Protein 1
Amino acid sequence: MTAIEGWLEGGGALCTGQEHIENVDTEFFDLSNLRPDYNVYKAVYSLAYALNDMLHCKPGTGPFRGHSCATLQTMEPWQLIHYLQNVNFTTPFGDQVSFDENGDALPIYDVMNWLHLPDGQIKVQNVGEVKRSGFKSEELTIDEDKILECTSCPEDFWSNPQNDHCVLKKTEFLSYHEPLGICLTTASLLGTFICAVVLGIFFYHRRTPMVRANNSELSFLLLVSLKLCFLCSLLFIGRPRVWTCQLRHAAFGISFVLCVSCILVKTMVVLAVFKASKPGGGTILKWFGSMQQRGTVLALTCIQAGICTAWLVSSSPAPHKNMQYQNDKIVYECAVGSTIGFAVLLGYIGVLAVLSFLLAFLARNLPDNFNEARLITFSMLSFCAVWAAFVPAYVNSPGKYADAVEVFAILASSFGLLVALFGPKCYIILLKPERNTKKAIMGRLTINE
C-alpha cells in the first residue's frame, strides 16, 4: 500500500488545486513564531551539506575502514553522522551552524530586551546573542544601537509613568495656600488680634482695681509674650528656609518661657501677699518688689536664651529634603539638628510649667481676693496636658503634619492661657463694672475672676 492509499483510507482527501494556503491551519504556516521553521531549515541544510560532502568522497581517500567511501545505496546512519559532525556553514541570516563531538548543535542564545510601551504592552527586541564555537569558547555580541537606553533621573526628578523621560518630583510642606495652612494661619492671626484687644482693654482700664490688683505690669508682659507665641507659629508655615528653621524653635522656646515665667512670678507674688497678710510676715514682700519680679522673669528667660544659643551654635536646625518618605515626592522639613538641644528646650519649659502648676495648686484655696491662683491652676493644667499629648503626636506624624501638630500645640496652649487667665477678668471689666471696685476686690465678696 502506497502512502497516498493509506492517506485516503484514513479519511484524507486529495488536493484539488483550488485550495487557499491562507486557510491552512498548521504550525508550519504560523508566522507569529518562525523559530521552529528556522530550525527545520537549518536541519535540512545540515543534511544537504553532509550528503554533499559524502558524495564528493574519492575512493581510496575516504574516512572509513580501508579509506573507503560511503554511497547512497549502502550508506549506514553512523556514516552520515560522521559527515554531520563536520558540517560548518553560515546561513543567509548570519547564523553559524556546526556540531560538537557528540553531534549536538552548538547553541546560540538570543539577548532580548523587554520594552514597556506607553499603551501598556510589552515588546521583546533582540539586541544580541551568545554563541559557542567549536573550540568551546563563548562569544557575546551586543548591538548597542538596538537597546533602550536607561539613565537615572536627577535627584529632584522622578520617572514618568511611561518611563520615557524624567519629571520634577512633587514637593510637600505646610503651605499658606492649602486649607490646613490657611486654618492655622487664621487661628494664629486671630489669637494675635485677641491679645491686642485684651491688651487695649487692660491699658484703658489700667487704673481700675481689677487691673491693679492683678499685677498690671506682669499682666501686660504676659499679654505681650502670648502675642509673640501666636506670631511664632507662623514661622512653621511655608517652605523651610535657613533663617526660619533657626528662628522658629528659638522664638517659640523664648516666647513660651517668657510667658510661663510671668505666670510663675504672679503665682509667687500671690503666695507672698497672702503670707504678708499674716502676723510677722510683712518682711517677705521686700523680696517680691517690681524690680525683683522683673529680674526673676529676665533671669528665667535668659536661661532659655542660653539654651537656644548653645543649640544653634553646636548643631543648628537646617532645611532638609526628605526623599525617604515617598520616592516620587520631596518632603521639605526642618531637621532639628541636635535632638538633645530640642529636648532640653522643651524640658525647660515643662519644668517651669509644672512648678507654676504646683505653686498655683497650693494657693488655690486662698481667700477670694487672691483667687487668681485658681485661674493659674486651670491654665497650667491645660498647658501641661497639651504639651504632654504633643510629644507622641509629633513623633508619629509624617512630613508636613509634624509641623502642623507643633503649630496646633502652640495655638492650643496659647489660647488656653489667654482664655483661662484673662477671660474672667475681661468679663468683669466689661460686663460687671460694679464688681470692678476696691470694695469688691478687698471685701469678702465671692469674686470669680
Protein 2
Amino acid sequence: MIHRKFVFLAVTLSIAFCAQCAYAASAPQYLYQLQNAQFSKLRDSNCKYYVVDPDDSELTASQLTTLKGQGKVILAYISIGEAETYRDYWQSSWKEGNPAFLEKENPDWGGNYKVKFWMPEWQTILLNFLRTHILQKGYSGLYLDIIDAYYYFENQRPSAKQDMVNFISRIRAETLAVIPGGKIFPQNAVELYENVGYRQLMDGFGVEDTWMDGDKMQPSQQTKYVLNILKQAKQDGKVVLAVDYPKKQNNICTFYQKCNAEGLICGAFDRDLTGKLQTCNA
C-alpha cells in the first residue's frame, strides 16, 4: 500500500514477542515496524525477517552485523514511487513540477509526492541514496514500496508498467553490486509477477490487505487472484510476507487462520506500523 510518515509513538514490542515470533499460528511471524524499531528489541526477538525504516531505526553497520550474525534478514523499507520530504535526498526548493519528475502530493500522506519514476534524474537520486544511506551500511536488502505507482501514470504513459520493472531491475543491480546476495522484496502490485523477467528480480513479496482492508473483507475474487499468484511465487521459492491490518479480535483470528492455511509468513499489525502486535487471543 503506501508508506508511512514518521510519527514517534510509544511501542508495545515486548519480550513476549520473542516467543510469539517462533512461527506461532496466532501471532506475528515477522516484524514490520517503521516507527521506533530499536536495536535492542530487534536483537532480542527471534524472528527471521524484519522490515524497518533505515532513517527511523538508525541502525549502524555494527548493529546490522550483529543482527545478521543471528541469522536475521533485515530489510530496509524505501518508497520508489513517491518522494518523501523527510529523506536526506529532499531539497527545500522542490515543489510540484520542480524538479520535472515531481508530481502532486499524496492527499492521504502529507509530505509524499508522486514521482515520474522512469525519469533518469529521479532514478539517479534514489540510487545514490540507496547506495550511501542504506546498502553501504550492510542491510540484508531492500523492501520496495509504491511499486503500484505505475497505476497513476498508465493513462498518460502506456509503458509505465514496464518502466517500473526496468527501474526495479536497476535497483537490483545496484543492490547486488554493493551487497552480494542482497535481497529485493517489492510490496504489492502482485500482478507484475506475471512478467517472467520481473520474477527473476525479486527474492520475495510483501503483500498487504489480502483478506481484509482493515476490518472489511476484500472481494472474494480479488483475494483468490492474489492467492493464486502467491502460490506460484511460493512454488518458485519466493518468500511471502503477508500483512493485514484488522482491529477486531475475531478478524485478527480469521486473518491468522486463513494466512497460515496458505503457508505464508503472517503478521497482523496496526496500519501505522508502530510495532503494535495484533495477536489472536481466542
